[in-house]
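Known limitations

Structure tokens in this collection are predictions and should be treated as such. Users comparing against experimental data should check residue numbering before alignment. To illustrate the layout, the record for Guanylate kinase is reproduced below. The input appears on top and the generated tokens appear beneath it.
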Amino acid sequence: MIEKGLLIVLSGPSGVGKGTVRKGIFSQKDTAFEYSVSATTRKPREGEVHGVDYFFKSREEFEDMIANDQLLEYAEYVGNYYGTPVEYVRETIDAGKDVFLEIEVQGAGQVRRKFPEGLFIFLAPPSLSELENRIVTRGTESEDLIRSRMKAAREELEMMELYDYVVENDEVELACERIKAIVVAEHCRRERVQYRYKKMLEVD
Ligand SMILES: Nc1ncnc2c1ncn2[C@@H]1O[C@H](COP(=O)(O)OP(=O)(O)OP(=O)(O)O)[C@@H](O)[C@H]1O
Ligand SMILES: Nc1nc2c(ncn2[C@@H]2O[C@H](COP(=O)(O)O)[C@@H](O)[C@H]2O)c(=O)[nH]1
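Generated tokens:
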């Protein structure tokens, strides 16, 4: 029987650097996780590609996915839907591969209820002012949206204690290394290694 892969959930407030850290992790050759591409009703930002950054959907298409139970979780975040297509996640985990989700905090809560055995990592900013600075510097949101995201961020930061790990994103490279180290440690903790030893002893 194939041992199931790990469901890794990276969450945290808007602008903390989840996307940047995720890209950092996936740009490394030794990364063996599979990235789950989300669906959203948000319009593509410059350079974003359908099927790579997101599956861009109309509101109607997204609501059909909800009605047809095609999402592991979804949330309405600052005026748009975002959700995780469930089929890809299940198939990949069942094939023994680790799946990496990068999602906001409400959705992570839903995944926690459906997949309590997942690994939940909260990415935290060095400070609130640095968080705001990052959203502003990114230059992708209007002033109104920045205010909404900062308001949501205060509530989201209160949820960090519900996570298995909190990783500070002070420097991108360090945050990537910390997350990868956590995943390695979790695999050991979940007794994969012990399981292999048991098998080895059975053979001997
Ligand atoms: N450690 C860091 N130090 C300084 N700037 C950073 C760091 N990490 C990310 N940034 C910058 O902060 C901005 C926000 O990063 P990013 O878009 O990755 O955040 P996010 O959490 O994915 O946001 P959202 O949830 O809104 O999609 C970007 O301009 C990025 O370059
Ligand atoms: N609940 C979910 N949240 C998601 C998903 N994919 C992305 N996100 C999060 O939404 C916000 C906004 O993203 P942006 O690309 O518009 O800046 C951010 O926190 C993402 O992590 C998802 O499938 N489900």
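For this record: The chain has a mean pLDDT of 92. Strands lie at 7-11, 34-35, 38-40, 54-56, 71-77, 80-85, 99-102, 119-124, 165-168. Please report discrepancies through the issue tracker.
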